[in-house]
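User: Can you help me understand a structure? I only have the sequence.
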Amino acid sequence: MDDIVLEATRYGKAEVRVVRVAKDGAEHSIRDLSVSISLSGDQAATHLSGDNSKVLTTDAQKNAVYSLAAEHGISSPEHFALVLARHFLATCPFISHARIAVEEYAWARISCQVNRALNWSAGSAAAASIAARPAWFSRTLSVQAASCLASRNSS
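Assistant: Let's start by predicting it. Here is the structure, written out as tokens:
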């Protein structure tokens, strides 16, 4: 087994969906993100001897996304990607690189009558009925992407 050389490896959690509704007065805003995480570091023991002590589970990665979104909010996809990358590098000494990709699905405000029942729509189908509000949102086709690659050796 001494002749086996393990190249760089990475693992992670793909497409963690985060939808945050900011209720600031009468107008609410929506942030709808898909977050993918890719971590790498000292993983040799995991692959060569089955020692998973240096593996951050995908559930822990997903829960970190939800927890950090609640704690820090989502001011922009880029900022949220940095928050996540810094978190994984600061809390997991066995991780040397964190790559975070964030896609944001844009929602557009659509004017309508105040005394009508309104729906939140996702694409063309209504997702849920809500109480009367002066406006509602529908998801548009535009997608913004943010990607962040951080490592312990970078400044």
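Now, to help you interpret it: The longest strand covers residues 95-111. The chain is about 25% helix and 50% strand. Let me know which part you'd like to focus on.
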